[in-house]
Amino acid sequence: MKKIAMVMLFATLWLMGASNGCLSCHQGIEDIRDHQSGMIQAILKKAKEAGVPDNDCVVCHGGNPQETEEKAKAHQGTLKYFLDHEGPKAFYPYPASPWINEHTCGMCHPVQVSAQWNNLMATEQGKIHGAIWGFGAKEGYRHTFTDFNTTALHQRIGTEAYRDYMKRLKAKEPQAMLEKTKELPPAPTADEVEKDPTLSVYTYLRQEWLRCHTGGKGRYRRGDFRGIGCASCHIPYSNEGLYEGKDKNIPHDQPG
Question: Is the full-model pTM beyond 0.90?
């Protein structure tokens, strides 16, 4: 009976690996959503189109699901299908990153992904202006700088009532809702600050304040751990930033 049980166990594991090769190493990892949810069903549909039915990992992460021995080989590249169709173009450890999520989250949420650069947590326009105002108000009332050059910054999605409200607000506060913004200047040199101390605001912003920018992962310390891009909000982290799941191949003692 023990032999039969062992054979059945290995057969089960083999079948699971056959349907999702990623689980040969990541057995026990939690589902990102309930398997009956619309999100997972859409991912599984895409996996089937890509020739890897039941593999809900590679649709977002890419990688090589056929490689079950070497991590470096498994965590590289992507399926040929995705090179010719929508989907990840390489292995993405952080598929929600705004720098590549047009190929991941954007498959199902193109409008939200296209609008992510207008998000105040991406541009940090208000925070930047507030700091500059406190260091001498070089730009006056104009909210000139954001984390990167932007155009049509206040193009909105949402209900008609919300868009109408924002349109009226833009007409009322044009200095805060510019059509174009400039990328935040680089941190000044010590000599430049010596000549003009107000320039130190750019050092302050780049070292401290902009850690909330969704284009990065935030500060590496207790309470500040989070994801990047869409995952900044949609994948919650504990204060300690430690993995608490059942996948034995993900360290449980390394924060981040």
Answer: no
